[in-house]
Amino acid sequence: MGRPQPPAPTPPDRAGADVIALVKHSRQPLRADGAFFACVERNTGHLIVKLPAARVTELIVRGHALPFAPNGRVFREWAALPVPDNDQWTAILEEGRSFATGR
Fold first, then answer.
1. Contact 78/56 with Cβ under 8 angstroms?
2. In what order do the strands lie in the sheet with 66-68?
3. Which of 10, 15, 47, 80 is deepest in the core (most CB within 10 A)?
4. Considering only CA atoms, which of 99, 103, 100 is closest in space to residue 35?
5. What is the pLDDT of residues 13-42, one digit of tens each?
6. Is the pTM of this model over 0.85?
7. Is the pLDDT of residue 87 over 70?
8. What span, in angstroms and rounded, lies between the C-alpha atoms of 35 and 26?
9. DSSP structure class, residue 102
10. By the 8 A CB rule, do 20 and 9 touch?
């Protein structure tokens, strides 16, 4: 048997936490109630977050996100945020966590 893995980190509250550092240095995806909802793509450094399809489309249309399309297949409920922005990433991670947990 392999070594037990540490629990995946959860994003901190907005109180000045450095979300970019937390997410980028995590080797595991972020989970809430067992549901995977965010990670940083290793090759690009983009924040990948699961959100409602309509919200993903909105972020793409406004130029805040790119479609997440590994191997050319677009995942309509996943957005790729290419520009590290602590406030934006914190808000988007909160949205992703809420979407993943249904809260």
1. yes
2. 30-32, 35-40, 47-50, 75-81, 66-68
3. 47
4. 100
5. 443 355 666 666 666 788 888 888 999 888
6. no
7. yes
8. 16
9. T
10. no
